[in-house]
Design goal:
Elements: H1 9-89, H2 96-105, E1 112-122, H3 131-138, H4 143-156, E2 163-173, H5 176-188, E3 192-205, E4 208-219
Length: 264
Amino acid sequence: MKDASFLPEDYLAKLAERRTNVISLTLFVVVMAAVFGAFLVTNRQASQIREAQGAINQQYKDAALKIDELNELESQRDRMLHKAELATALVERVPRSILLAELINRMPTRLSLQEFEIKSTPVKPAPAKATERTQSLKDKNAPERIATREEAQETRTVEAPKYVTDIIMVGIAPTDLEVSRYITELNAYKLLRDVTLKYSVQITINEQVLREFRIEMRLALDADIRKVDPLMVPRTMRDPMTPGRQFTLPEGEGAAEGQNEGGQ
């Protein structure tokens, strides 16, 4: 038998509806509290992320400033090095007098020079590539960048002058042995390049058979007399460029073989 209730059915229905409303409202409050809590947590995390992003952006800005300062310092260094290179180009790194002395000190004792010539020819720089400038002209939205590159191009056109120095020597020697010894000494000298014997022919001077030779060589582009220790050779003979030099044989080989024209 079903339980009987003395309460009206309308009252019971309202009571059940009220209970349902209370449960629904409670669940709604719980859900909204959870949503609000999740919102607060998410908002806090977003704030932390924004703060971290701001700190990272500030670090990037500081790093960019440091990079700009470093690039400026490098540009200043390059300009200073370029100016130093231009100033160095105005100073003769291998004085002609010292070069002549070095060549004479390496001569065998029985070898004489009749002609000595030094020719310096400027080296033409390679033409600059126009690819970068052409690409800049195509970019119509970057006039400032075009001007900057043109200024940089004008700056790069000022280059230190470079010269190719050729040396020509014509002399006489008793035999080809002295000429060969001299060429060996010249090849061993660090400042010289492309030492070449152009000819060696037999000539007769005052009924004395001698060898006339011609040697051509080139001074190294990076030649600097300060990087080479000079060769000190004591000599008692006269300047080999002047006429009248005697060919004196070493001791034990006899007296002097002869004299050139105008000799003593």
